[in-house]
Fold this protein.
Amino acid sequence: MLFEGNQCVTKTDLSPGVYDDFIKGLGTRVKLSDDDVDYLLLAAKTTESVDAMEEFFHGEQGRYNFVKYAVTKNERGKLDVAIAIHHAMWDHGQEKDPDALARELQEQSWKGALVDFDGLSEQEQETWRTKAVDFIRFNEKKQVTPEEKDYWTIYFHDRALSGFNTNCIDTLLDEKNK
């Protein structure tokens, strides 16, 4: 099972205490590491902070998070926040069905919004099956090489940026114009 999602959030006029609660809740929901939550909390201590962070944890119950954010202190001394998060979590558990995972990977990609898995050519379906088998094998390993981790981090990073470009920019602009 694979879950991927994008979340785009803007908040204005947050007091430092409300900002802290917001960040801690967000961190719990998308399973950010304690270090990343602490780093986001530090943004409230500055006049302006714009940054991105990324983390990848392989394994049968793994996850990937990519967070881009901007926190500014407004003229009233309160915090204005814009955060774009892409998160992926998977749990292969006992079931390691490459066909089901290939379908999930393709359907959650930008291409999945255009073409259903069954509408792909046999060669395209096989490409997704191969990626699914590789992903399952990678996550079964107890230790991975830096190159293997980089490959899958880049894979999810590209999916994150595609999701941000498709979903988050419009959402953040719509929120700003309300």
Summary: The first helix runs from residue 16 to 30. Residues 2-176 form one domain. The chain has a mean pLDDT of 83. Strands lie at 2-14, 48-57, 63-73, 79-90.
